[in-house]
Design goal:
- The complex is a heterodimer of chains A (about 325) and B (about 280).
- With about 325 residues, chain A is of the alpha/beta class.
- In chain A, about 45% of the residues lie in helices and about 15% in strands.
- Chain A has 14 helices and 9 strands.
- In chain A, strands 1, 2, 3, 4, 5, 6, 7 and 8 form an 8-stranded mixed beta sheet that branches.
- In chain A, helix 9 (about 200-205) links the parallel strand 5 (about 190-200) and strand 6 (about 215).
- The longest helix of chain A is centred in the first third of the chain and has 20 residues, at about 10-30.
- Chain A is globular.
- Chain B has 2 domains: about 15-50, no CATH class; about 55-280, 2-enoyl-CoA Hydratase, Chain A, domain 1.
- Helix content of chain B is about 30%, strand content about 20%.
- Chain B contains 8 helices and 12 strands.
- The longest helix of chain B has 20 residues, at about 170-190.
- The chains are: A alpha/beta (about 325), B alpha/beta (about 280).
- Strand 9 (about 315) of chain A pairs antiparallel with strand 6 of chain B, so a sheet runs across the interface.
- Chain B: Its EC number is 2.1.3.15.
């Protein structure tokens, strides 16, 4: 049973009608093909209409949609199953909230790394809801270094409600693990493309998010804090999450406008979850395109541009000079 | 016994005749030790009876560390923009203005270079009293520029962290300061210039998860709260009370994330020694 968000109600109703029409055709052998065709068109139109006018908070909801594809779904489809998962940080353990390994696209090997969420209650617990411990970030770094050694481009998929705020996580240096990744990813000699496929929450997202190109799917969010937590801190209540979502400017469109990301990957009408094949295709195409372009420059140039890009992010005022907002290379 | 009884009820002295005891004559440590503030100042704001380190700001640190008359502050006038036109219960620009007026500071960090026992040093020092020492674009840019100075003048860098983390009102801009400062530190590292990270109470969130943990050596003040997630959040997540001493400097030293802890009264000497050992 697919899940529908509250604002997707009209879509659900149309799907119900479609099911009924198909039922009638099957049972009474009445030709309803025209009705079906009309309904299918209407569904597409409704999806387009609803999804073109989503509010930031609604996009946050879509980014967390339980039917949305997760990292391993992307890897599986993009590589046509030609993927070997690699485990462990070689120090403490294997973090299930971050996965990674070698895989291929059209005969070329890539290193894929990403946050992984679970598809049901049991798996969600197993994956710790996509909230990584320090081991996850250290595993990711180990795999990136492995990719660098064998000259394979790195693709990361970001989808996390945040790094895990647990006791052991602190003991083993959650802050250090993320900080180390920021510094090391800056200096990786191979091309790095980071894609936000769901939630991009704060340091937990950024910990695998330093790339030559940082892209966001259309219905995802990326910010320093979730709208709910922002609301609870600034308004002392969770109720202002919609206002917080607006204020944080966390949508792909806002992030691109503020030059904090490099591009947006379009989702099919109705969101990534409503047409998986299309989103997998779009993501694969973007990866190939960007890696091809990045591989045409030297690793020194890439690293220099990467540093310049992140160093130019910021908005501050300095008297005698004009207000500076983010300017990119 | 009428002199013993209050005849007229309430306070009868007019406000203009009210006598004030000057504020801050005394300081009381959490353990209850009382000391005169002038005396406290002589001890680098550490209560001698129990070693409690009072929170201090950039002014005090600069005075404590630099040789007299050698300090020069740079990029003084940088202040916050409002890229997102952020407004919660208050406009972000108003919040910044109010904090500037209250503290006399421009933002949550000041950068200055000077000498320590004749050895050059650049210090970027955070101020907690400015919006919780939160990291926004100004903090990122000032650190970035102080690194430029360090590379140009081959001067070691020390960052004194004291921060609640990212500045929410700058949202993703603030998040990207973690990337910015870390990226910039790779340049310092490439030039083989020492970076000393000094963590003080409190250092949490995005600051811990970026430059504060990336020192060539990481050192801390005794008893400082240092962590990624705040204690309240962790407590809510795990649903248990936290062990005593959790997320203190001593805890971090024990778990291998600090090189040593240094009492503020010995900071200058230790720093001078460290700089000498890096150099010679």
């Amino acid at each position: 049973m697919p899940t529908y968000l509250d604002f997707e109600e009209p879509i659900r109703e149309l799907y119900e009608q479609l099911d009924r029409a198909r039922d009638i055709e099957e049972k009474s052998k009445v030709d309803t093909s025209k009705t079906i065709k009309d309904l299918e068109n209407k569904i597409l139109d409704t999806k387009k209409e609803i999804y073109s006018g989503l509010t930031p908070w609604q996009r946050v909801q879509v980014s967390r949609h339980p039917d949305r594809p997760y990292t391993l779904d992307y890897i599986e489809h993009i590589t046509d199953g030609d993927f070997i998962e690699l485990h462990g940080d070689r120090n403490v353990k294997d973090d299930k909230a971050i996965v990674g390994g070698f895989g291929s696209i059209n005969g070329k090997t890539y290193m894929f790394i990403g946050h992984q969420k679970g598809i049901n209650t049991k798996m969600r617990q197993y994956r710790n809801f996509g909230m990584a411990n320090p081991e996850g970030y250290r595993k990711a770094l180990r795999l990136m270094k492995l990719a660098e050694k064998f000259n394979k481009p790195v693709i990361t998929f970001i989808d996390t409600p945040g790094a895990y705020p647990g006791l052991e996580a602190e003991e083993r240096g959650q802050g250090e693990a993320i900080a180390r990744n920021l510094m090391e990813m800056t200096q990786l000699k191979v091309p790095v493309v980071c894609i936000v496929i769901g939630e991009g929450a704060s340091g937990g997202a950024l910990g695998i998010g330093i790339g030559d190109k940082v892209l966001m799917l259309e219905n995802t969010w990326y910010s320093v804090i979730s709208p709910e937590s922002c609301s609870s801190i600034l308004w002392r209540s969770w109720e202002q999450k919609e206002i917080a979502a607006n204020a944080l400017k966390l949508t792909a469109k806002d992030m691109l406008k503020n030059k904090l990301i490099d591009g947006i990957i379009k989702e099919p009408p109705g969101g990534a979850h409503s047409d998986r094949e299309t989103i997998f295709g779009n993501v694969k195409k973007e990866i190939k395109k960007h890696i091809k372009a990045l591989e045409s420059s030297s690793s020194e140039d890439r690293i220099e541009h990467r540093i310049e890009k992140f160093c130019s992010m910021g908005a501050y005022k300095e008297p005698a000079k004009k207000t500076k907002t983010t300017a990119k290379q | 016994m009428s002199w013993f009884k209050r005849i007229k009820k309430g306070i009868t002295t007019p406000t203009k005749d009210k006598k004030e005891t000057p504020d801050g004559l005394w300081f009381k440590s959490p353990k209850g030790h009382i000391i005169e503030t002038s005396e406290l100042e002589k001890h680098a704001y550490v209560v001698p009876a129990d070693g409690y380190h009072k929170r201090i700001g950039s002014d005090e640190y600069f005075n404590l560390i630099f040789d007299e008359g050698t300090m020069k502050e740079i990029n003084k006038s940088l202040s916050s923009g409002d890229p997102l036109k952020f407004e919660d219960t208050k406009k972000y620009t108003d919040r910044v203005k109010a904090s500037q007026q209250k503290t006399g500071l421009k933002d949550a960090i000041r950068t200055a270079h000077g000498k320590v026992d004749g050895q050059p040093l650049m210090i970027a020092c955070m101020d907690f009293k400015f919006i919780g020492g939160s990291m926004g674009s100004v903090v990122g840019e000032k650190i970035s520029r102080s690194i430029d100075y360090c590379i140009k003048h081959k001067t070691p860098l020390m960052i004194i962290s004291k921060s609640g983390g990212a500045r929410m009102m700058e949202a993703a801009f603030s998040l990207m300061q973690m990337a910015k400062t870390s990226a910039k530190l790779t340049l310092l590292s490439q030039h083989k210039i020492p970076y000393i990270s000094y963590l003080t109470d409190p250092t949490t969130g995005g600051v811990t998860a970026s430059f504060a943990m990336l020192g060539d050596i990481n050192i801390a003040e005794p008893g400082a709260l240092i962590g990624f997630a705040g204690p309240r959040v962790i407590k809510e997540t795990i649903g248990k009370d936290l062990p005593e001493g959790f997320q203190t400097s001593e805890f971090l030293l024990e778990h291998g994330f600090l090189d040593f802890i240094v009492d503020r009264r010995e900071l200058r000497d230790k720093l001078s020694q460290t700089l000498r050992l890096f150099k010679n």
